[in-house]
Amino acid sequence: MGRSPEGNGPRPRRVRTYLTLFALALILPVLGVSFFGLNRMAAIEQSQIERRVIQIAQNVRFVVDRELDRALVTLETLATSSELRSGDLGAFHRQAVLALKPKKAAIVLIDTSYRQLVDTLKDFGAELPPTSDPVTAQRVIDTGKPQISNLFKGSVNGLPVFNVEVPVLDDEKRVRYVLIMSFQAAYLADVLAEVRLDPAWLAGVTGSDGIVVARSQKQDEYVGKPLPVELFEQTKNAERIYPAVNIAGERILRATVRSERAPWFVSASVPLSHAQEPYDRSLFFAVLLVVLALMLSGSLAYVFARLMARPLDKATHAAAAVGRGGTVQASRTSLVEANVLIETLAKASTELNERARHSDFLMRELVHRSKNQLAVVKGMALQTARESTTVNEFIGQFDRRIVGLAQSQDLLLRQNWRGAWMRDLVQAHLEPFGAVTRAQISGPDVFLDTTAVQNVGFALHELATNASKYGALSNEAGRLVVAWEALDDGGVKLTWSEHDGPLPHMEQEGFGFRVITELVPRAVNGSSGLMFRPHGVRWELTIAAGHIIGNPDGQL
Question: CA-CA 20 to 30 A from 253: which of 188, 201, 372, 539?
């Protein structure tokens, strides 16, 4: 490494240079692994193509042999017919016509001198030429076993045909006739079409003499033509799969299997370019990766060099935004120190803005609740005035209700107007009557919202007032039980029960009666029940789940 002009250390380089070297150090191993992976994938894909060529050749052989088996079964069945044994060839002709299913085939009966006796292509009795394939017929006569011919030109229709032949034996097990099912080569091409190959793939059948019997493509152009000598030698001698040049002069990858029924070679092939496509694609991607890697290393070095100057600019703008009272969004940059600073500024801006919004909320809430309180006070004054017969009586009742209302407001104020705990609410409204020590208060921790606090507070105040005048708090022996419990639907059930007091009494036309039986249940979306029992008043109230706050500490 070069040294600086002052000789005090390595020669300084630009950040972009180091970033470029760093990018190359990272990319080169990745490129090596990618090249290996691409080459391996190409080898696997080519191996799959080779296996598929072999599999298709075997599938085609199965289809071809299946058709030959069907023909043999049909012929062997006809060979045992009574018409044939009795020599009634006219009846046998009709029977053969009915038994013949393939449209591109015919059933022929010849004697041991190769003379055609029956041909389903002709009416019975018509003049028929000798068979065009005496070689296969003679093999049937000599061996007494079924034989299948190579391709030849038919003597009746003049088309390329092949024969499936079986012997017809007499009573002494000697060959009397040869029964033939003669197929046009086009029929075998239709059979090959059942395999449903991709357009680039080709299946074919070649006779033992090297003549093309059938092809899945361009049947009419190549049927009956001999394979090139080199290709035919490969067909006879090759094992599994091999590269070759087909009859059309195309380079191919070819697999050949022998038919189990006929002296034929069944092959499947695919253009060599298609088989080599995985390697070509691998090479293309390898070159593309190199080009992209070089472009990326240079581009990223340039980009990152510029990006390293931006985080501090972001932090500066964030600080200015905090000073203006704006909101700073936490964002990630390329420098950890800048990220910490921006995140701290974002938290600070969020807290400051939350405080400002909370202050605005409190001011709006104060105005709103002041209006509500004035409406409540007005309603209380009107209802109290209707119940009072004198001014002093009005002042006393109104003063006590204002005190009760103030108790609820104090609780709300302590909780920043979020609500209040049920236990604090009960104790606050019993305390002015000196009833806290005479009351049994129990229940789980339940935090009520502001609506429930105000309305349940009204009810508790009216119940305590009635108890001090007429109920359990009007004598020394009386006591109270105030309890609440959680309901399955998330609501709460509150119970006020008086014991050991005088006979229960409550003015059912008064304001207090309406508060605990109508107004409060309606306000908390619940229901209430008031019972007058010998030992005292019992009042129950259900409070809907919507008025229960589950996490008061998370509220503002």
Answer: 188
Q: Is 214 helix (H, G, I), strand (E, B) or coil?
A: strand
Residues in the chain: 556
Geometric angle at alpha carbon 323, from 322 and 325, rounded to 5°: 65
pLDDT per residue as tens digits for the range 351-407: 767 766 655 654 554 444 444 454 455 545 554 555 556 766 556 555 555 555 556
Of residues 335, 287, 327, the one with CA closest to residue 311: 335
How open is the CA angle 151-119-69, to the nearest 5 degrees?
A: 55
Burial status of residue 419 (CB atoms within 10 A of its CB: 0-12, 13-18, 19 or more): buried
Quote the CA–CA distance of 257 and 63 in Å, as a whole number: 13
Q: Which two tokens stand for residue 469?
A: 């005048």
d(CA 206, CA 402): 113
Residues 6+ apart with CB under 8 A from 381: 398
The values of phi and psi at residue 234, to 5°, are -65, -40
Alpha-carbon distance 364 to 392, whole Å?
Answer: 37
Region class of 430: left (phi > 0), else alpha (psi between -120 and 50), else beta: alpha
Between the alpha carbon of residue 540 and those of residues 257, 431, 519, the distances in Å are 93, 21, 14
DSSP E strand boundaries for 135-240? 147-148, 152-153, 160-169, 175-184, 202-207, 212-215
Q: Which pLDDT value is given to residue 199?
A: 83
444 touches 485 (CB < 8 A): yes
